[in-house]
Amino acid sequence: MSTTARTDIHVDASRERLWAALTDPDTIARFLFGSRVSTDWQQGSPIVYRGEWEGRPYEDKGTILDIVPGDRLVTSYYSPLSGKPDVPESYQTVSYLLADDGEGTRVTITQDGCADDADAERMSANWAMVLQELKSVVEED
């Protein structure tokens, strides 16, 4: 049975501003551990993340499953660093959801396919760091 990681944060910015940050490769690198993202942001297109994690280079990949500007980005996700084979059942689904929240926006990230509760907690903590960085980048710009 798989478990889902989930975290969210309020950002003092519009959905449009957050969407721009979530889809601009230079901005993504600022909040996603230096990852360089390449894609054409179209449903069904590949998305690739390149970078270094704990001193090891990586090239993670997936497919854009759903994309609604200003609302949601849903991708499949596979990392060779997981140690799992590159087969469909090794892919997880990562969702970025934007919702109005008072004067700002609530950003929620979920990642399914976590091995167990401990893995989901670890992934939630990683995504919480990402969201805090996203908040800092967007609110400072």
Please describe the topology of this protein:
Elements: E1 3-11, H1 15-23, H2 25-31, E2 36-38, E3 46-53, E4 56-68, E5 72-77, E6 92-101, E7 104-114, H3 117-140
Helix pairs in contact: 2-3
Report on this structure.
By secondary structure, the chain is an alpha+beta fold. The protein is 28% helix and 43% strand. The chain has three helices and seven strands; from the N terminus they run βααββββββα. The protein has helices at 15-23, 25-31, 117-140; strands spanning 3-11, 36-38, 46-53, 56-68, 72-77, 92-101, 104-114. The protein has a seven-stranded antiparallel sheet. A hairpin with a 2-residue loop joins strand 6 (92-101) and strand 7 (104-114). It is globular, with a radius of gyration of 14 Å.
Give the terminus-to-terminus CA distance: 41 Å
Strand proportion, as a percent range, falls in: 35-45%
Helix content: 25-40%
Morphology: globular
Number of strands: 7
Total of DSSP H or I helical runs spanning 4+ residues: 3
Mean model confidence by pLDDT: 94
Describe this structure in a few short sentences.
With 141 residues, this protein is an alpha+beta fold. The chain contains 3 helices and 7 strands. The longest helix has 24 residues, at 117-140.
